[in-house]
Design a protein that fits this description.
heterodimer; A: alpha+beta; two-stranded antiparallel ribbon; two-stranded antiparallel sheet; 5 helices; about 20% strand; B: alpha+beta; globular
Chain lengths: ~150, ~650
């Protein structure tokens, strides 16, 4: 099962991920309605995409009393069933990564659904700050980069 | 039906009365003028009182307009136009544009333009959160620099992750070369628009939007984006902009601009190599809204006097005027000065020109320690340069003289010296519309022609770098997005030869329309033909059609560009600009470049005039640059023709000239 992996050091703050996400889900270009957000600190030149990690033990799922959050077995994405959601927003509070948000127009909670396995944010990320890959590959890349830094190698 | 692409609302703010109202956007108006520059030009033409000659009058109209496609998925579409009816430094209409997030956030709040008139009774800032728009007291922010103001506004405005335009002391003190700094590091950098903010007592505009921009055909928009994405990524220059920004131009064009006319052979250009910047200072690539090219870098100064300082920005148009133009070659110092001008709210080209020209006057003995209060303005004295820049922002000492503009300073110094003003004026590198020119373009005819006429920032965002390079043929024209019939026409001309003046009017006509369309759609020039990237008018048409649902061809957009340019000419004529202002000062012509790679190159006035009059002809103007009724009517500008006729500025009717 692939994961949406973030390398914030590569994020330029262009927000194409937010635009693509909202356009794909709502047909409207509206970062405030995107299922991910790039948090920025301009003075420090810091841009950090906040995305859902589709946790194995998911707090959003655990706190949801009406059991409106289910996992898609194909992609592993946790999905909100809007017919069951009562709008208590406990999942927004409960998520340790701030990945749940509230849609500015519908006021319902929204979250990343991995675009059924073809995340549009990744498609439009030129630098690779967002990748959709197997966790093992992400782990190895991280390990290799750390090893390179520690060894002072090329 | 609800508009797509545009959001359907124009915000009108009268600072004198504090009235804020919302006006519906007429869809026909939108289609004719597109957005951004086009909206600003037409809204200002309709609203500005051309009899008022004081740029600091409450009557002066300020317009801020994101592009038609800003906020959407269109590549590089994050630009916002900042325009004034009467620019303090030019004495005519002016627009500039910037990247960052401001334009997009304004669209997300659902405004296609803001029109600002009047003068607030005390300093205020405009706070926009979707429908909630209010003027708030800014007395406690007055006098503060941009970053400090921003920190305070972040704490008090209550708008997480907002976008902002903020003036610093430069704008507050109505200094020449001031601008509202956009998102800390972006610059709508021309014409002293910051001084108009200051005169209006408008310290800042902060905006956060959550309503979004409707897109008519999202799938088509995705496809249009993907097409541009793929072909631009295949272009070698794409990587170059992404990795080096425009800093790779420093070594190239710095040669044309070191200490202005002086150009010493032993200047240490190697210090300013882009490799050095990347290795020693750059920490991360940064981008404006919706841009996958990310030509900006965040940087840290790790050692020396300015250790610990960080910032973004520093285009060639900043590095050159603040560095080699003033004889400064230390990269850390230039980056420090880059931060300083952003923080004071200065256009780096205008301020670099003011300092470099002063240094040149100093060298020539036309500026003395008595004038500068002892400040030694020798080439390369960065400490004196920094002090002078702060003086200009704060209107102190010799800086107070420059705060009223370099031409004003020249006249005053000439009076003190008892010499002809011309002796000082000839060292100012600017065209007759008083727009500073950051380098000596005499060898490159297309660029020289453009710079002689233009009012906008004289860098790659608004010029035709295409014309600066040779070996451009039909295939190359096509590949970078020149439409087929135009490319075919050009292939038989001298357009591809930068050293020859012939046919540059043809290129300029097309280029000006192209640039006008870019600025009106909000697309950054750096994606397009004009930076030799592969997004041309045909791509704009695809993106525009997918976004707005209105199917247009590239010819339609080209025509819209022409329409907007006619309005601009009408405004400049009403402001008193004439054919004579479409030139460089006389000493730019007939004088060969003294040394360097282009030694001996001359700009010929007769050739220049020939191309100028041909450009007028292509625009449907007479030999004096006055629009003809036939062309205006053809473009649906009957009312503009009537207004020019009433002012005696319409070309005498001779049956009209067909486009």
């Amino acid at each position: 099962m692939k994961m949406l992996a973030v390398d914030y050091t590569r994020c330029t703050g262009c927000r194409l991920c937010e635009i693509a996400c909202s356009l794909h889900h709502d047909g409207v270009a509206n970062p405030a309605a995107a299922r991910l957000a790039v948090i920025h600190w301009d003075e420090e030149g810091l841009h950090v995409p906040a995305v859902c990690q589709q946790c194995d033990t998911a707090m959003c799922e655990a706190v949801c009393q009406p059991r409106a959050i289910h996992r898609n077995p194909g992609t592993g994405a946790l999905l909100v069933d809007s017919a069951l959601c009562i709008g208590c927003r406990m999942c927004v509070v409960g998520c340790p990564y701030g990945a749940m948000s509230v849609h500015p127009a519908t006021r319902r909670v929204i979250k990343c659904d991995l675009c059924s396995g073809d995340p549009q944010c990744v498609r439009f990320c030129e630098t690779g700050a967002l990748r959709y890959a197997e966790p093992e590959a992400v782990a190895f890349a991280k390990r290799a980069a750390t090893a390179r830094a520690l060894s002072g190698g090329a | 039906m609800a508009l797509c692409g545009w959001t359907g609302r124009i915000l009108r703010v009268d600072l004198s009365s504090g009235t804020i109202r919302c006006q519906d956007l007429d869809p026909r108006f939108a289609e004719q003028y597109l957005g951004g520059q086009g909206f600003a030009e037409r809204l200002i033409f309709d609203e500005h009182d051309f009899a008022e000659r004081d740029p600091f009058s409450p009557k002066n109209v300020l317009c801020i307009a994101p592009g038609a496609l800003t906020g959407t998925l269109t590549p590089g579409s994050g630009r916002v136009t900042v325009a004034v009816g009467l620019s303090p430094s030019l004495g005519g209409y002016l627009d500039a544009n910037a990247g960052g997030q401001f334009g997009a956030e304004l669209k997300y709040a659902n405004y296609d333009a803001i029109v600002i008139t009047g003068r607030a009774p005390h300093p205020v800032y405009l706070r926009i959160a979707d429908d909630a728009v209010e003027l708030r007291d800014a007395r406690h922010l007055w006098g503060k620099r941009v970053r400090e103001t921003d920190r305070l506004l972040q704490a008090e405005a209550g708008l997480a992750q907002y976008a902002r335009l903020i003036i610093g002391p430069a704008g507050e003190n109505r200094a020449h070369g001031s601008m509202p700094t956009c998102d800390l590091f972006r610059a709508p950098s021309a014409g002293s628009t910051g001084a108009v903010f200051g005169a209006k007592n408008l310290k800042a505009i902060v905006v956060k939007g959550t309503r979004g921009v409707r897109v008519a055909r999202p799938q088509d928009a995705f496809a249009a984006f993907a097409a541009v994405f793929e072909k631009n990524r295949a272009e070698p220059r794409f990587r170059r902009f992404g990795e080096q920004g425009t800093k790779w131009l420093v070594e190239l064009s710095g040669v044309l601009n070191c200490q202005y006319n002086v150009q010493p052979r032993d200047f240490p250009y190697a210090n300013l190599s882009v490799e050095r910047f990347r290795k020693e200072f750059a920490t991360a690539s940064k981008a404006c809204h919706a841009c996958f090219q990310h030509c900006d870098h965040h940087w840290h100064i790790r050692q020396g006097r300015f250790a610990g300082e960080q910032g973004s920005g520093g285009e060639a148009g900043t590095i050159i005027p603040l560095g080699p133009a003033c004889g400064v070659s230390d990269y850390a110092t230039i980056l420090h000065l880059t931060n300083l001008v952003n923080d004071l709210g200065f256009d780096s080209i205008a301020i670099g020109t003011a300092v470099a020209t002063s240094m040149h006057w100093w060298q020539e003995g036309l500026l003395t320690p008595e004038d500068t209060g002892g400040l030694p303005l020798e080439w390369g004295n960065a400490a004196a340069q920094e002090e002078l820049i702060v003086q200009i922002a704060e209107r102190r000492g010799y800086g107070a003289l420059l705060a009223d503009g370099i031409f004003h300073a020249a006249r005053e110094l000439a009076r003190r010296r008892g010499v002809e003003p011309e002796r000082l004026m000839r060292l100012i590198r600017a065209n007759k519309k008083r727009r500073e020119v950051p380098a000596d373009f005499r060898p490159l005819k297309g660029l020289a022609f453009s710079r002689g006429l233009d009012i906008r920032e004289c860098d790659v965002l608004n010029t035709d770098t295409l014309l600066a390079e040779g070996n451009v043929d039909y295939e190359r024209f096509r590949r970078i997005g020149i439409p087929e019939p135009i490319a075919r026409q050009w292939a038989d001309t001298y357009i591809g030869n930068p050293m020859v003046f012939d046919d540059k009017s043809l290129a300029k006509f097309y280029s000006d329309n192209h640039v006008t369309v870019c600025n009106s759609l909000g697309i950054c020039q750096r994606f397009t033909t004009w930076a030799q990237m592969r997004m041309g008018l045909e791509d704009f048409a695809h993106c525009f059609s997918a976004t707005t649902g209105i199917d247009v061809s590239w010819e339609d957009l080209h025509r819209a560009g022409d329409r907007i340019r006619q309005i601009e000419q009408a405004m400049q004529l009403l402001h008193g600009f004439r054919k004579e202002h479409d030139y460089f000062p006389d000493n730019y012509y007939g004088v060969p470049v003294e040394h360097g790679r282009f030694e001996g190159a001359v700009l010929d006035r007769e050739e220049y005039t020939r191309e100028l009059e041909n450009l007028y002809r292509l625009r449907g103007w007479d030999a004096e640059g006055r629009p003809t009724r036939a062309r205006l009517v053809d473009l649906g500008l009957d009312d503009v023709a009537a207004r020019l006729e009433a002012a005696g500025l319409l070309a005498p009717d001779r049956g009209g000239i067909s486009p």
